[in-house]
Amino acid sequence: MTPIQIVFIIIAAVTLGSALMVVSARRVMHSALWLVLTLLGVAILFALLDSRFFVVVQVIVYIGAIAILIIFAVMLTRHAMSDEGSPLNRYWWAGALVAAVFLASLIGILSTWGNFSTQVRTATQGGENLVTLGLSFVDPSGYLVPFEVASVMLLAALIGAVYVALERRGEKK
Amino acid sequence: MNFATDPMNSIIEIFRGWLLSLGVSSSWAQFILFVIGAGILATIPMLITLGLIWAERKLLGRIQDRLGPNRVGPWGIFQTMADMVKIFTKELITPKNADRIPYNLAPILSVAGVLALWAIIPFGISIIGVNLNVGVLYLIAVGGFGTLGFMLAGWGSNNKYALLGAFRAIAQLISYEVPMAISLLIPVMFSGSLGMADIVASQDVWYIVLSPVAALVFFIATIAEVGRSPFDLLEADSELVSGFNIEYSGLKFGMFYVADFLHAFTVSLLFTTIFLGGWRGPLAAQYPWLGFVYLLIKTVIVWFLSVLIRGSMPRIRIDQMMFFNWKVLTPLSLGLLVTTALVGKAIPAQQTALRVIGLLIMNGLLLLITNFIWRAVSSSKVRPVVTAEPYGGQTTGIKEVSS
To answer: What pLDDT shows up at residue B34?
Structure first.
């Protein structure tokens, strides 16, 4: 067994374990923190595949932005410290069923994909070619349209956030 | 490669040969070397911090017309050792209702977030922890861990003052990340790479010459990220008991303290690497250790400047901090990004002298325009005069008086 395989097994176990803890932790805040660990585990899996861009993007976007936003939201809710109620409600079985069906269909679809049983392939030595990645975002035959649509949507969200937060004249006093 | 020109890599190769001769397989040998390298890279900054804390306290003392540490050893040089021993022997108090795991994880995360930055800094042409092709993104990503550490500290302490302190700290950190990230894009545009080694290698002309405004924005943003004066309102010693770390004692407080001092030096190191040519200098390409010396000299100069600012600037208020970030630094860096792109396209990179002059003129113009707008805005906005009344009855005690 190579050291990479040992690291992989440890990281995979930690990621799956903390993913379970996200849904089973009793305090919302703890769920958020377990989520950070899960996302970090995924980032390390990317690192094992030598995909450096995805490691860093995973950490910036998911841990640096989304997880911190979630933690902020949880911290500002009431009783975040003392919420000890059961995380389950009457319909927990329905949620479990949907999740199981979704997992089964994902595995089913992926198993028909040709590369399902191939050996692990790492990214090119030294990480991805970022220039190619960047060019494909501005290439009309590449991903220009999805990229621009996403940009416009983010801009709209930004303007909407400013509008919601805007202090209207005369409303303050 | 021989020992005189490149001692670091020769030692690595000798050690690798020794491991292989013991019958260790090459992948395990690589793994062991990685572990040892990471251990060394994480230990040296902690040792440097011992000297840094003493030097900074001594310098601040001289700036404020005091002697600074002067009892333990010559010039008080062993003061940090004495402090360290004291901090090791202090009791580790955990508040009764604290959330244990976040509370104990926070100091570790804040130190780790700083130490992780050292992994991508090129200390010489061939001395670098890892030459990440996304080095600049990595810088910003690792900053997120420091933020997370502050947040866990504030929340885990189960103390409303710690939580408020954490909110203040995080508001500042995530705000100043914006101009910092934008100003980092300019070196990336010049070098055409996100890797730190490539950024250093492409600095035939230092980037501080090509884009002084980007360097200025980055420098200010890093001071705010470290939380140093004039941005030290997150733990204003003279007004608040402390910030997010109010419930920490002994070694756990010491870790926040070390992270703070080390962060100040690390951002100087980053500034040197990105804007001052890193290890570049005469003969540095032939003798990597010479590049390390150059890097150290430049870093100490930048670090000294930040200590000088810390010792001489008054603290700003929280609204001024936000105003300065969102209404001055962010538009300035965005405008700079656009002008740099335009000038960079208009003048090809071969005509170095013309390019430098063009970029300098545009940078100067941008600064002038910003200064003009700032003055116009700040003179048109008159703050209301507030007077305090004797407290009593149902009045709040504060009344606004129209000016």
So the answer is: 85
Low-confidence stretches of chain A (pLDDT < 70) are 78-85, 120-127, 169-173
- Quote the CA–CA distance of B29 and B21 in Å, as a whole number: 10
Q: Residue B140: in which H helix or E strand, if any?
A: helix B135-156
B102 contacts in A (CB within 8 Å)? 29, 33
Q: CB contact, 8 Å: B99 with chain A?
A: yes
Provide, as residue numbers in chain A, all residues whose Cβ is less than 8 Å from the Cβ of B27. Answer: 2-4
Cα dihedral: B35, B37, B38, B43 (round 10): 120
The verdict on a CB contact (< 8 Å) between A3 and B28 is yes
With tokens 């990336």, the residue in question is B188
The answer to whether the CB of B98 falls within 8 A of the CB of B247 is yes
Chain B residues with beta carbon closer than 8 angstroms to that of A64: 140-141, 143-144, 147
Residue type present at position B6? D
pTM assigned to the model: 0.87
Structure-token pair, residue B373: 């707008």
Return the pLDDT at A173: 46
| B133:A130 CB<8 A | yes
Is A32 part of the contact surface with chain B (CB cutoff 8 Å)?
no
Distance CA B311, CA B56 (A): 10
Distance CA B17, CA B3 (A): 15
CB within 8 Å: B102 and A33: yes
* B398-401 vs B385-388, strand pairing mode: antiparallel
State residue B333 phi and psi, 5-degree precision.
-70, -35
- Domains annotated for chain A, with CATH where assigned, are 1-89 (1.20.120.1200), 91-173 (no CATH)
Question: Nearest by CB to B133, which of A52, A59, A68?
Answer: A52
Q: At what angle do helices B250-275 and B100-115 cross, to 10 degrees?
A: 30
Integer Cα distance of A159 and A152 in angstroms: 11
Chain centre distance of CA B348:
33
Q: What pLDDT digit, counting tens, does each position of B150-205 carry?
A: 888 888 888 888 888 888 888 888 889 999 999 999 999 988 888 898 899 888 88
Shortest CA gap B295–chain A (Å) = 25
**B28 close to A (CB below 8 A):** yes
CB B125 within 8 A of CB B291: yes
Mean pLDDT by 10 residues, chain B (403 residues): 70 84 82 87 89 91 89 87 90 86 90 90 83 86 87 86 85 90 92 88 89 93 89 76 82 90 93 90 82 91 92 86 89 92 84 85 90 83 65 54 52
- Chain B residues touching A56 at Cβ < 8 A: 132, 134, 137-138, 141
* Minimum distance, in Å, between the CA of residue A36 and any CA atom of chain B: 10
Model confidence over B86-130: pLDDT tens digits? 988 998 888 888 888 889 999 999 999 999 999 889 988 878 888
| Bond from prior residue into B390 cis (ω within 30 degrees of 0) | no
